[in-house]
Amino acid sequence: MTTTRSDFRYFERLRVRWAEVDMQNIVFNAHYLMYFDTAMAGYWRALAIPYHETMAYLEGDFYARKATLEYMASARYDDLIEVGVQTQKIGNSSMVLGCGVFRGEQLLVSGDLVYVFADPATMTAKPIPQAFRDLLQAYEAGKSMVDVRVGRWSDLGDAARKIRSQVFVDEQRIPADMEWDGADEGCVHALASNRFGVPLGTGRMLEHVPGVAKIGRMAVLAPMRGGHIGRAVLDALLQHARERGDREALLHAQLGAAPFYSRAGFVARGPVFEDAGIPHIEMVRAL
Length: 287
Prior knowledge:
Order of helices and strands: EHHEEEEHEHHEEEHEHEE
Number of domains: 2
Radius of gyration: 22 Å
Strand order of the largest sheet: 6-7-8-9-10-12-11
Helix content: 25-40%
CATH architecture of the largest domain: 3-Layer(aba) Sandwich
Oligomer: single chain
Number of helices: 7
CATH superfamily of the largest domain: Gcn5-related N-acetyltransferase (GNAT)
Largest sheet: 7 strands, mixed
């Protein structure tokens, strides 16, 4: 079993809820499996794979075979804990994920979870595809899980259109005639795809005035949000703006996304306004 924080690349931060504490005023032992499962969902997101779509692509799915937990100390109500997940071993048709629950540097609970890759129809084991093995090994080696391409609408438009349609038209109910404003042909676009070539996020950039880049239409598929894909798209657009000599970047951020842009160095400017019925704020940063 894994025992130190340095063994993990991925962590999921959680806060212990009242409902998770038992009559001994500590987290009930079975809840640690729930913590592991919650962290595993984040681990898949860090791998940049929408889980169900990826399993369909791989023509199989992973099923729990065995869970082994070791309890060293207890978490208590309102503790901030971090749950680490790592791939420890990949066999022919099974793999072992190591998990650890930490409060600061203190290891509270460790666990090994064994999963078997199988055909969902017959529930018979089958070899783990090499592409998935390569993905896990690349992640644990510290490699990037997404590739961001920057180019014209003629090259990236088909994939970008699908993402924006799902996010803006279907999810946010923005009228299609407002989303497709005719500016795409003259913009530089960025498209983030995972290691299986599946497009996950996009954004565009146009010249607002000479020397000022305007970024917009930033969209990431819902299952992948929080996985740093949006930041990868934004960074690629900002780098392109620097390379062409722009001195400043601006954007109109949906109010709920303003903290994301703040973390990327953007500063709010001016009052809140509505666009397509959604509150926005203008934000700027120097390049």
